[in-house]
Amino acid sequence: MTKIFKFTAILEGISYLVLFANMLLVKPNNMILYKKLLYPIGMAHGVLFIGYVILAFLIKKSQNWSLKDFFIVQIASLLPFGTFYIEKKYVKNA
């Protein structure tokens, strides 16, 4: 389960950065690019984000995270590069 969480954390972080970069490149009035580019990336990021949160709940006990650590793991999913930090610092035994 820990390997799956690490993999999901990395993919979630990458999808977040790709989505953010594409949001800066696509102009708001260009609906064609939005539907072809941002929508699929946003959907993938949303699925990975939900997977990250659920997996964090599932491995909380096996990783012996305190409530503070668990809160940090959850908040990191909202920050760019946060999941990469969590994957290196908080996830053990993978």
TrEMBL record:
Asked whether the keyword Lyase is assigned, the reply is no
Entry superkingdom: Bacteria
Enumerate the spans annotated as DUF3817 domain: 3-91
Task: Provide the membrane topology annotation.
Answer: Multi-pass membrane protein
- Where do the TM regions start and end? 7-25, 37-58, 70-86
State where it is primarily located: membrane
The record's section on InterPro entries has: DUF3817_TM
Q: Name one Pfam family in it.
A: DUF3817
Localisation per UniProt entry: Cell membrane
Entry GO CC: plasma membrane
State if Transmembrane helix is listed as a keyword.
Answer: yes
State the UniProt keywords alphabetically: Cell membrane, Membrane, Transmembrane, Transmembrane helix
PANTHER family the UniProt entry points to = MEMBRANE PROTEIN, MEMBRANE PROTEIN-RELATED
**NCBIfam families for the chain:** integ_memb_HG
Q: Could you tell me what this protein is called? A: Membrane protein
What species is given as this protein's source?
A: Flavobacterium aquatile LMG 4008 = ATCC 11947
